[in-house]
Amino acid sequence: MDTLEDNFTGSIDPADPLEPASSPWRIIVPTVIVCYLTLVQVLRFRALRALERKYAAYISDPYALNYKQAAEIMRLHQLRDTPFLFYFGTQWALVKSYGMATGTPLLVRTRQLCDPSRVGRRAEDTAVLLLELLVGDIDSERGRRAAARLNWLHARYAARIVPGDYVHTMALFVLEPSRWIDRYDWRPLVPLEKVAYFVYWKELARRMGFAHLVPDTLEALEKWKQEYEAEHMYFIPENRMVTESTVGLFMRGVPRFLHGFVRALFVSFIDEKPVREALGFPEPPRWAALLTPTVLRLRGFVIRHFFLPRLTPLDPMARPGKDGRLYREARFVGFEPWYVANTWYNRLMVWVTSGGKVSLSEKFQTKGYVPEELGPAEFEKLGRDEVYRDAEEMKTYTGQGDGQIGAGCPLAFR
Q: 15, 185, 252, 350: most buried, per Cβ within 10 A?
């Protein structure tokens, strides 16, 4: 009887893994994982769907967008959904422009991209101007001054710049980011986003005075780019000189024993053979040619299925200080910490991100910047009156239309 009773009322062995004491975790953990992954799927495309609903009337004809609407559409992939490959693709658009034999001789003569003491500032000034024009409000005072400053800088060399090179550089800026995003990010850009970016850049081209050279559609621009490259993209020594300076920038924070590895990856990013040949680079090693797309596709897959979307957009714009000047955040610095305020936090960030090789100092203009000073050091104090005048003319120009392409006189800003 004792044995039979024990069979019905026997004690539970806590060490027995088959006992129900641990079973709640076997239910809770998988449930939490499934709920999280489901939430990722539910939220991943929510912002895009909301954007498409808001601009549903333009999906059949996105070329009817005005530049202000286009700017709002751009913000989703620029600052929330695909910022990394958007800015990576923009950087690579600049690198590819160095394959144009019509443009690099001027870059070499001005020494802005060949002198190691200048190339870092040139890269950061380019990034700052692009942010002001692409992410900031181009109708604001600082946006208009940034556009006017860019025009003033180009005007110094107007007689030596081939007009078609303006259009080609624009084509690279428009097409290259979407090419990288479509191939490797967690989602491709939808046609509404691609055309919006083209519409916005055409407005920038209008303010720079070359919109009359730009084809009317995105497809026509891509065809024009291919034809222009077939004629003007070929190797000359200046192409390699300028590109090597950019390679040197990438190498600055890399330990010497990794230079060969990083150089191979750099060449693998230039995945179009005609561009690579025009820049004077050999075929990348096979391992690099396989590693680059594999890592980028894996990154896209992981973000798509396992990461929640950003709750708030990035904000890489420089902040205005009490003195009226603009100060960059250290975390958005590319190569050199130009225009970053000299605070203990920024000093630490710069030191860490540079591997202890760069220290924040007055050399990098820790007093910040204003748009009318951007550009080569020798031009810093020049051209202010012209910039103020052109910025005021742009204010008049933008007041003549309701954000519509074609408002105002584009030739005023050549």
A: 185
Closest listed residue to residue 194, CA positions, set 215, 219, 214: 219
Q: Which of 79, 73, 24 lies closest to 50, judged by CA?
A: 73
DSSP state of 363: G
Q: What is the pLDDT of residue 414?
A: 47
pTM summary value = 0.88
Of 111, 90, 107, 110, the closest CA to residue 99 belongs to: 107
Rg (CA), the chain: 26
Please check whether residue 193 is in contact with residue 73, taking contact to mean a CB–CB distance below 8 angstroms: yes
Between CA 113 and CA 110 the distance in angstroms is 8
DSSP result, 101-131? TTTHHHHHHHTTTT-HHHHHHHHHHHHHHHH
**Which pLDDT does position 8 carry in this prediction?**
45
Residue-wise pLDDT tens digits, 147-203? 999 999 999 888 888 999 999 999 999 999 999 999 999 999 999 999 999 999 999
CB of 195 within 8 A of CB of 218?
yes
State how far the alpha carbon of 28 is from the alpha carbons of 31, 33, 292, in Å: 5, 9, 38
- CA–CA distance from 26 to each of 16, 19, 33, 37, 118 (Å)? 15, 12, 11, 17, 60
Q: Average pLDDT of 297-324?
A: 95
Distance between start and end Cα atoms, the chain? 105
- Going by C-alpha positions, the residue among 186, 180, 172, 199 that lies closest to residue 48 is 186
Determine how many CB atoms are found less than 10 A away from the CB of residue 157: 12
pLDDT tens readout for residues 93-139: 999 999 999 989 988 888 777 777 788 898 999 999 999 999 999 99
